[in-house]
Amino acid sequence: MEQETSLMAALPVTPTLLETRELWWNIDHNSGKVIFYLMAVIAMGIFAYGIYQKLKAIFTGKKSKENRFTNLKDRISTLLTFGLLHKKTSEKRTPGIAHALVFFSFISLWIVTDIIALQEHVFKTIYFFQGTFYKIVSFVADIAGFCLFIGILIFTLRRYLFKSKHVDNTQNDWIQPLFLLLFVITGFALEAFRLAATKTTEPYAPVGSALAWFFSYMTVEDLKSSHRLIWWFHGILTFAFIALIPYTKFIHIIMSPVTMFFRSDRHRGQLSTPYFLMDMMEAEAEGKEINEEDFTAGVFTYNDLSWKSLLDSEACTSCGRCHVVCPAQNTDKPLSPKFLMLDIRNLAHNEDRENIYAHISQETLWSCTTCNSCVEQCPVLIEHVDTIIDMRRGLLQSNMAPANLQATLKNLRTKSNPWGLDPNDREKWIQELQQESGVAVKLAKENKGNFEYLLWVGSPGAFDDRNKKVTKALAQLLTKAGVSFAVLGNEEKTSGDLARRAGDEGLYQEIVLENLEIFNKYNVKKVITQCPHVYNTLKNEYPEFGFAGAEVFHHTEILAKLILDSKLQPEKSVEDVITYHDPCYLGRYNRVFDAPRFILESIPGLKIKHIENEKTKSTCCGGGGAQMWYETPGNYINVMRLEELNEHNPSKISVACPYCSIMISTATTTAFPGTNAPEVEDIAITLAKAVL
Questions:
Q1: Does residue 13 carry a pLDDT above 80?
Q2: Which residues contact 132 (CB under 8 A, 6 or more apart)?
Q3: Is residue 254 part of a domain?
């Protein structure tokens, strides 16, 4: 296929006997070149101005304390894996194939154009565009043009005829397929007109040669006239494409690789830390002057968004993958990760952009469960959750949080639990367990740190009747296996995860420092917890504050290891049909998939039914991101998830998270009132039935 673009110029070279072609065939070499290169300069100028405007908008964003220029080797690897090899894009078969066809064909044609440019502008005395090399380049161009046509055709049919739920045809979506289709069609037409007019056959250019036969009925004059007209149209199209890149969705060609390269190297379960409270405390103790702006977190105006959030908004291709997996969007709540990014992008040139919450509603931001499905699905690695949490921080400081959420945060501050219950009741379950089973659980203060594992019970495990059963079962299993462990009892506080995901960074860090003081007091090096939220924050976020080197285990990891080591032997048959629900903070965030399933598969008599939305595709229960503590508009996420889990009519739904247990159990009464709803049961309880 001929790519006679701004870089394709003719060479005043004496013809040889080897196969080649004149690049400026049928075009005036004098006035034609002047007009052609003048259009090129104008197009590049418009392009450069558009890129300048984009960069100017991005760099108005707040500078982050996070260094995104570290680990260059890993960043290049990420760029190659997700950008060049399409790791995420290919997960969806049809659009993945279509994008691969378009991407690699576009790159191939770009390289062909560069080869011609090198011949024209660099190697003026050496004519290499001939013979075998010319045949190879011609063949590659033809095949690439054909593949590009097929790829664009698939995209067009999917967007406008079959109307996939991923896409919604907004903005200037039509420009991309139209331009690329015109590129292909005019390119092949140019090749066909030239071959037909010169009575030439080029079998190494199969598409062009086939079309040339189709036009063979035309006279030479008509062929040349048509060629000349299409040649100029093709050139104008090329320069219009270049000029429009910064102003259309074509910008993702540039921005998507950049946002991939600057992907955070934090663990996926670790939020950004805008400041360190300890630094403020040390400065105050030393009598140093404190700049309050250094210890302020959150988004109050458009310019408070981080530069990475603004870059993400420019990189968004509006593919809709985040949109269709978002549990908030799927239950008719106002949040759509895709439209959040597009709204931020649109604010870049809005006169009222400083009043950001006039354009992005509070309800949109409070609807997020922080399940990370959007980030998991995004083919260009946009970090939606970071942006949402940063905006929540601003809302909270501006007193724009829901009243019941503020009450919950007050409970965390004053009572160290979200319900506001008496913190001195955290040890009640210990007394109950001893009365029920004779198992005596040690307190850390009684053992003066003489234990291997600290069992972090958590607020649900200490106060919620449903989850106290899990705590008791876990304690019995650990005792039977001979594990050396203790609990903090009334000394235990909240982990702070809820505060941080709600946007209260100051409260979160206060809690962290208090917990670290307790950990140091008892020389805690290993922690077991039944809560994935605690597991995630202790494992991935506490090390930044001084808990480095400690080992944190979810109870399913420990129980699976005890079974492997034959310290626990599931021998009793449990005749149940179960479906397992992957908690977001255990599965998607921390990739703990095998341990829970290994435990269940080790229990005699238990039958496991698998569903489509499991592991990384698991749907949120609706309780994450502090969602348990306030009402949001729309339908119930936990009911939607229960309907998925109930696909095979299991007798029980197996869980490994106290919040999932609460949310899904609540959904059984909402979705199945008065019917035989499946029972919700933690893995520890199920295992205890087979072992104890």
A1: no
A2: none
A3: no
